[in-house]
Structure to design on (234 residues):
């Protein structure tokens, strides 16, 4: 997809700028192509200098769904919104709220490919499971030929991100055990932060090696338009 590396880099940096932990991304030149490069978050150096792997399970694995059922809609029903949100039972309250933020952000930026394998938990040795940082997120709005409906149904039907109404957020709140008013307030807070950070994040991503500013601005504009449309309905 034209502009996909700028698109995903912008989304990840925007998430981090508004307080959502996300993969550290940059854009690099690889001969005649450009690529997005992601710093691994599932590795760390031990005190002896050895590389230690942190085990990760995506939400399909964690809920015993095979890869072919990562989407809710299919020949056999896959991971639904309640299943996805209830995976937070493995997390601390802080990470449970962070999962809600990831879900809201994916809707606000119109990442319709946010299926169950795009959310993960980390399993450090001898420690409580943690929510993995946000990863693999981009907006589909520049490409009308790409599926424009969210990966999970909301209130029993497939939805486009821009069509979200107050009762849809209420359905999300009920699925995750949150108060509807709190979820709607969080949507407003995140949109306000996205608007405030747009210029700074656009400049950062546009300055990356091999980045094309036009693609960055396209993603930023479409995302902000979608987010403001959603918040205007609340």
């Amino acid at each position: 997809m034209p502009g996909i590396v700028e698109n995903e880099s912008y989304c990840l940096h925007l998430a981090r700028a508004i307080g959502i932990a996300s993969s550290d991304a940059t854009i690099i030149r690889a001969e005649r192509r450009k690529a997005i490069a992601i710093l691994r978050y599932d590795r760390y150096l031990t005190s002896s200098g050895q590389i230690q792997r942190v085990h990760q399970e995506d939400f399909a694995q964690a809920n015993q769904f095979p890869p072919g059922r990562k989407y809710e809609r299919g020949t056999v029903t896959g991971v639904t919104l309640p299943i996805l949100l209830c995976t937070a039972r493995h997390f601390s309250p802080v990470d449970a709220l962070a999962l809600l933020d990831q879900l809201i952000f994916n809707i606000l930026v119109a990442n319709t490919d946010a299926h169950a394998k795009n959310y993960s938990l980390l399993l450090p040795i001898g420690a409580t499971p943690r929510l993995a940082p946000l990863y693999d997120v981009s907006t589909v709005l520049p490409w009308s030929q790409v599926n424009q409906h969210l990966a999970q149904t909301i209130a029993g039907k497939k939805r486009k991100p821009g069509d979200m109404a107050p009762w849809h957020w209420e359905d999300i709140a009920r699925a995750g055990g949150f108060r509807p008013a709190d979820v709607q307030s969080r949507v407003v807070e995140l949109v306000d932060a996205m608007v405030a950070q747009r210029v700074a994040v656009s400049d950062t991503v546009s300055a990356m090696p091999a980045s094309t500013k036009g693609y960055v601005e396209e993603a930023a504009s479409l995302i902000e338009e979608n987010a403001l449309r959603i918040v205007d309905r609340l």
